[in-house]
Automatic annotation (TrEMBL), chains A, B:
Top-level taxon of origin: Bacteria
GO MF annotation, one: DNA binding
InterPro entries according to UniProt: Homeodomain-like_sf, HTH_TetR, MT1864/Rv1816-like_C, Tet_transcr_reg_TetR-rel_C_sf
Taxonomic lineage of the native organism: Bacteria, Pseudomonadati, Pseudomonadota, Gammaproteobacteria, Oceanospirillales
Pfam families found in the cross-reference section: TetR_C_33 (PF13305), TetR_N (PF00440)
Keywords for this protein: DNA-binding, Transcription, Transcription regulation
SUPFAM superfamilies: Homeodomain-like (SSF46689), Tetracyclin repressor-like, C-terminal domain (SSF48498)
HTH tetR-type domain location: 11-71
Name this polypeptide is given: TetR family transcriptional regulator
Residue ranges for the DNA-binding region feature of this UniProt entry: 34-53
Amino acid sequence: MSTLKKQYHHGDLTKSLLESAALIIKEQGVESLSMRKLADVVGVSRTAPYHHFKDKNALLCALAEQGFYEQEKILNNLIAQKQSGEKSFTQYVHLYLGYAQQHSETYDLMYGRAIWKAGEPNDALKAVSKRTFKVWIEWVEVLQDQKVLTDTNTPLRIGQTTWASLHGLARLIIDGIYLEQSDLSEMIDQMVKNLCIDSSTCA
Amino acid sequence: MSTLKKQYHHGDLTKSLLESAALIIKEQGVESLSMRKLADVVGVSRTAPYHHFKDKNALLCALAEQGFYEQEKILNNLIAQKQSGEKSFTQYVHLYLGYAQQHSETYDLMYGRAIWKAGEPNDALKAVSKRTFKVWIEWVEVLQDQKVLTDTNTPLRIGQTTWASLHGLARLIIDGIYLEQSDLSEMIDQMVKNLCIDSSTCA
DNA sequence: CTCTTATCTTGACAGTGTCAAAATTTAAAT
DNA sequence: ATTTAAATTTTGACACTGTCAAGATAAGAG
C-alpha cells in the first residue's frame, strides 16, 4: 500500500510473470519459455508461478489475451478515424501484418496450435477473441457498404475469407518462410489488391 | 533377405520409424511424438533411432519431406489432366484444403514453425519444398494465360499471394479455429471466388 | 575363423511441467 | 497486542523429455 508496492513477498507476481514472459517470448521465442526459467528470471522458486497461473497453458492464454486487446485497439482506432474506406482498409492490412511481424510470438499464441489445439483456450481468451472477431465483422459490413469489399456474400463469410488471407500471409512471415523484406512488401501490396473490389484505388 | 526382412537387428529401422512416427502424429498430434515413445513402439531402445536420424528435427524433416512428395503429386496430376482451367483450379483448392484437413499434422510440419523457425529444415526438405513451389508457380503462369488468375502481376507474386490465402484457410482449419464443416465448406467456396478472376464460372 | 563395420543397448545428464506438503509472511479478528 | 486465518512461497519429489558417450552385439568381408 506504500508507494513501492513491494512490501509483501514479491509485490505483484502475476504482473511480473506476464511482463517477463512477454519479454522472453519476444526475444527468444515461445519454445524457450519454461516455467522454471521464468520463475528464476523473476527471482522466485520454480513452483511459485503456479499460484498465479493454473499451469503453463493458462500463462500462455494470458499472453494471448493481451495480444487481442492490442489488436482490438488497432481495429477500433481505425474504425473511429473517419477517412475513406479504401485508405482505412489498406492501412489496416499494413497494421495487421506489421503487428504480426513485430509481435510474431504473441501472434502465434493468439491463433496458433499451442493454445487452440495442443492446449486449451480459457474462458477469458475465448471471450476476447470472439469479441475482437465481432468488431472485425461489423467493420466488414461497413466496408461492404462502402464498396471496398465485395458484397456478394454475408459480412461473416467475407470477413472470414478476407481474414484468412491476411492470416496466411502473417503465418508465412512468422514461420520464417518469407524473410526478405522486398518480397514481403510487394506481396502485401498484391494482397491488398486481391482483397479490394477496386484494385486501382486500393494499394 | 528372406521373405521376412527381419533377420538382422531390426530389418529396416529407418522405414519403421517413419511409418510409426507418421501414424503417431496423425492420431495423437505432433506434440505427443517423443523419440523415446517412438523407439518403444517400434520395439527398440531409446537411442537406437539416433543412428538413423541425427536428431528429432531430422525425423520431423523426413516426415515433412514425404508430405511435399504427396503435394507435388497432387499438383502434377491436376496439371496433367487437361480440363478447363477453372475446374482444375477449383479442384486444386479443394484438394489442397482436403489434404491440410486430413493430414493436418504433416501439413503443420511442412510449413509450421516447428521446423522452419524453432528447428532447422535440412537440405532435402529445402530442396523438395522449393521444387514443389516452382511447380506451383509454373502452373500459376498457365492459369494466368487461361484467365483464371489475374495477370496484373508476375506469376511469382500472384502465386505467393494466392497460396498465402489458401495457407491461411488451411491453418485456421488445422489450428482448430474453425471446426464446423458447414462454415468450412462455405468459406472454401467463397475463397475460390475471391481468387478467381471470373467468380461466376469458378465455384 | 578373424576382423572390421554397422547396428543397437545401457548408463548418464540436464532439462521440462507440475503435484503434495511444509514453511513463511501478511491481513483479519479478538 | 496477540492469536488466528488466509495468502503466498519454498522444498522435495516424480515422471517425462532429448541426446551424448561408451560398451555390447551381430553381420558381412577377407
